[in-house]
Design goal:
33% of the residues lie in helices and 25% in strands. It is α/β, with parallel strands linked by helices and 406 residues long. It is globular. Bound molecules: flavin-adenine dinucleotide. The site of flavin-adenine dinucleotide (FAD) has 32 residues, from helix 1, strand 2, helix 6 and helix 8.
Amino acid sequence: MVKNIVILGAGFAGLKVTQDLTKKLKDPNYNITLIEKSDVHLYRADLYEVATAFNQKITKECLTKLRNTIATPITELVDTNRVKLIKDEVVKIKSREILLKKGKPVKYDYLVVALGSITNYFKIPGLEKYSLPLKDIQDGIAINCHLDQHLQSLWEKKSQKEVNIVIGGGGATGVETATELTSAYKKLCKKYDYPYKKIHIHIIEGQKMLGGMDAKGTKIIKARLKELNVKVHFKSFITKVTAKEITIKDAPEKLPYDILIWTGGVKSNPVVGSKPIEVRPTLQSKDAPSIFAAGDNAFYPDPQNPKQRLPMLARTAFDQGSLIAENIIRNIKGKKLKNYKHASLIYILPLGGRFALLKTQKHLISGRLIWYLRRLIFLKYSLAILPFWKGLRKWAHGTKIFTEND
Ligand SMILES: Cc1cc2nc3c(=O)[nH]c(=O)nc-3n(C[C@H](O)[C@H](O)[C@H](O)COP(=O)(O)OP(=O)(O)OC[C@H]3O[C@@H](n4cnc5c(N)ncnc54)[C@H](O)[C@@H]3O)c2cc1C
């Protein structure tokens, strides 16, 4: 009897499982189904570049080009002769079947849960209503348009007021966005003849660390932020947001703002539950061995700190997707499943313009070369998921657009 392998989500993990199964599982007795709500697969690591890229004119064509830097139609990535692609939203995972928003339920024998995470607003009053999130491609495009329109409207009113751009959250996304905004605003200010000295970029961060780094890394980031004139409010918790002001716990005054970008956290996808799925070393769910979970949806203990999960990173999701494809095939063939081995990763944090910081277990190195190294990582990824020329073109296209304001 034909069996169904169903993959939920075409992000870093889900796409990798689908592509590997397509290549390695030729047995027609196994159907492969991929369910994804979006038309595109997204390279989220460069969302901050999309949010801050410079456009001489905001046109539909220009925004499509911008979107194509990091978003790739799933139909270009998946062999639809082998994979049944369902564009729909998963609303519930049941034992043996998946419920969808629009379509009929889908039965599964093997399930891969790779739906990623969602923005966490921590129930802070006004935050979701008044801030711009940075999680999906439409968020990046919306921020990009908003920055332009905001300055355009000041130029139209002939206003030269002080402008406060606030980034909520000083993790990696917050820091890379804030630093790149300085380059973006230099260009935008020229475009609208606005004095750059009137633009103030702030980061509001609850802890003392920045960019997901330790004290040493934070020191380098602080120096870079100082050089770029980005103000950091450490140990500051946002407690309320209104249309014009941010209330920060214990701060004597409210912070007025023009644009608030929220990068302060993500949480488990509600379809998966309030917590990620606890997995065995084989990445099978502890509760149901025919269900595998990967990436942001999998709770896999961090070898450095076993009470914590592994950091939510693209490379982890990609590697776990690769192992899950292999383990499904092993299971079908009656072979012993392999355990996930977490490789210690290098981590690169862009810090505005062509400058970035690299962190390994032993080293911290910063500079222009590191920024180029990060672009090479995207090239490697593009070539892994796309045919050679398409992958190369995508990389070159993004590099051209992203370096225009550096
Ligand atoms: C702004 C930002 C910057 C980041 N930068 C970096 C970085 O520099 N380096 C790094 O390593 N990591 C980075 N990350 C983290 C990294 O992107 C995630 O850890 C990674 O994407 C997780 O992969 P995944 O496959 O679990 O989920 P995702 O890649 O998020 O994929 C989930 C997929 O599921 C789909 N989906 C969600 N819900 C449903 C539903 N109900 N029905 C159907 N489909 C659904 C989504 O559309 C998406 O395609 C960043 C994340 C963000 C948000």
